[in-house]
Write a structure and sequence with these properties.
CATH superfamily of the largest domain: CorA soluble domain-like
CATH topology of the largest domain: Beta Polymerase, domain 2
Structural class: alpha+beta
Strand order of the largest sheet: 2-1-3-7-6-5-4
Shape: rod-shaped
Helix content: 55-70%
Order of helices and strands: EEEHHEEEEHHHHH
Radius of gyration: 34 Å
Number of helices: 7
CATH class of the largest domain: Alpha Beta
Number of domains: 2
Strand content: 5-15%
Length: 337
């Protein structure tokens, strides 16, 4: 699908779709979404560039995604979105600048794109040029990344509360740590932590690729002729770089917190397993003396004095109960139960 945009009264406007793809006069942005071969050929003919195919985008090395060719600048970054069932989806998106016209090629649907289009169709204070649209689009992508990381932070905080309980008791003269809530599904916690850890890692990778694109853009703009629009773009790029660095650091912080939570949940699982093993161990030790007594009096020897006792049977039962109670009380006193 080929979406073409121009400007009118300082706003972004979308050109009506035509039966035959092409580039109309006044176009500043061409958005190719899962383009067909016919659409790619039309753009290549109009702008005199070679658009990389989907297979080329997948095979191209990360170190070779930023280059200049045929008077155009080619920049590719991995953008991430929440897909079906809230799963992270990462896919390369290519940004091309040729003769102050922006071309984007993408094969998935990051929500930053429609969000920017909706906002840009209102009067803008920034220059509506190809470079201006590219910077605004990357600003929308970074804003969306900030929203994603904020959501990850909330999920991590909720998981932390479920893992460590509800905190300290209130309204008491001496606050005591409340025990961890029972009924918490530790396996579900591990799955949630793993999903958010995977998403945060992909988001950090995406931010790094966007940072490389922005640095490449700055190098190109620094070589351009000085103008008011270029000064504005240069200042916006610096702000964008600071935002990307800040979000990358925040993603690293979240990764560390997620790793800590994962270790904590695994530790709780180990504690629960040790508790179960301890119960079985104590039960085995408690029932060992009664078993010994029953084994002694279960021997079939002819000369056993206790066999002639009138109260031999109650005596053996009492001895077994006593031999079970004494170890239990001992363990209780030691705090092992």
């Amino acid at each position: 699908m080929l979406n073409a945009y121009g400007t009118a009264n300082g706003c972004l406007t979308e050109f009506a779709a035509s039966a035959s793809p092409g580039v109309e006069a006044g176009t500043i942005w061409l958005d190719l979404v899962e383009p067909t071969a016919e659409e790619e050929a039309a753009v290549e003919t109009a702008l005199g560039i070679d658009i990389p195919t989907r297979e080329e985008l997948a095979e191209i090395e990360a170190s070779s995604r930023l280059y200049q060719e045929d008077g155009a600048a080619f920049m590719t970054a991995n953008l991430i979105r929440r897909g079906e069932h809230d799963q992270p989806e990462s896919s390369p998106v290519t940004f091309i600048i040729k003769d102050n016209v922006l071309i984007t090629i993408r094969y998935h649907h990051p929500q930053a794109f429609p969000a920017y289009v909706k906002r840009a169709m209102k009067p803008q204070t920034t220059a509506m040029t190809g470079w201006g649209v590219l910077i605004s689009l990357l600003e929308a992508v970074v804003d969306r990344a900030a929203d994603h990381l904020e959501r990850v932070g909330q999920i991590v905080d909720e998981t932390s509360k479920k893992t460590f309980g509800s905190g300290r008791a209130m309204g008491q003269a001496k606050a005591k740590r409340q025990p961890r809530r029972r009924g918490v599904n530790l396996q579900e916690l591990i799955e949630n932590i793993g999903e958010e850890g995977d998403f945060t890692s992909k988001m950090r990778e995406s931010l790094v690729s966007i940072g490389r694109v922005v640095a490449f853009m700055q190098a190109i703009i620094d070589q351009m002729r000085e103008s008011k629009a270029m000064k504005e773009n240069r200042a916006r790029i610096k702000i964008l770089q600071r935002d990307i660095v800040s979000l990358t650091d925040h993603a690293s912080f979240l990764n560390g917190k997620i790793s800590f939570l994962l270790d904590a949940v695994l530790g709780l699982i180990s504690i629960e397993q040790n508790g179960i093993i301890k119960i079985f161990s104590v039960a085995a030790v408690v029932f060992l003396p009664p078993t010994l007594v029953a084994s002694i009096y279960g021997m079939n020897y002819k000369h056993m004095p206790e066999l002639e006792w009138t109260y031999g049977y109650p005596f053996a039962l009492g001895l077994m109960v006593l031999s079970a109670i004494l170890p239990f009380l001992y363990f209780k006193q030691k705090g092992w139960l």
